[in-house]
Write a structure and sequence with these properties.
Elements lengths: L5 E2 L4 E2 L1 H47 L10 E8 L4 E9 L2 E2 L3 E6 L2 E6 H4 E2 L6 E2 L4 E5 L9 E7 L2 E9 L5
Antiparallel strand pairs: 1-2, 3-4, 4-10, 5-9, 6-7, 6-11, 8-10, 11-12
């Protein structure tokens, strides 16, 4: 049986009952303070996490990543009867007219741009699928090394030996 009783004659609680209610109110107040401290802790952790993410994201986004290398399929051939070196664009991205072409015949190295050698079938000044670069040579190439290198955006897109031979 409970030691706190309601007195119906007086319609009031006894002093023991008042003490009990006071104690219950204090416990609820303490528990509510504990709940607030947990919420504050979660909010602080969330704030620290978001701030840390923002700092890392801003640092990483400042890095300058290099331009992507164009994906192309190029094929080099020699027509010895007509004395012409061909480089054909067989697939991939179009290349600008500033792409460097380095042709080595024996000891001689010739550096040109795509715009100098391009047979541009659609007149857009780009080296597109199916279009060909053409370089005519006059010297005899028998027994000479012939190599072609295509460079775009500081990346080698093609480096091929079309004929083995002497470089002197």
């Amino acid at each position: 049986m409970s030691k706190y009783r309601f007195n119906p004659n007086i319609n009031k609680y006894t002093s023991d009952t008042i003490k009990c209610h006071y104690r219950d109110a204090m416990i609820k107040k303490i528990r509510s303070k504990q709940a607030v401290s947990e919420v504050v802790g979660v909010v602080l952790l969330l704030g620290i996490t978001i701030t840390l993410f923002a700092v890392i994201n801003s640092n990483v986004s400042q890095f300058i990543f290099g331009t992507s290398i164009p994906l192309v399929n190029l094929v080099g051939t020699i027509d010895k009867t007509q004395k012409i070196i061909y480089i054909e664009h067989n697939g991939g991205e179009s290349l600008e007219g500033t792409t460097d072409i380095i042709i080595t015949i024996g000891p001689n190295t010739i550096q040109k741009n795509t715009s100098d050698l391009l047979i541009d079938s659609n007149s857009d000044s780009k080296w597109n699928l199916g279009e060909t670069l053409q370089y005519s040579y006059n010297d005899a190439i028998t027994g000479k090394y012939i190599g072609v290198t295509v460079i775009d955006s500081n990346a080698i897109l093609l480096s091929v030996v079309l004929q083995k031979g002497s470089r002197s």
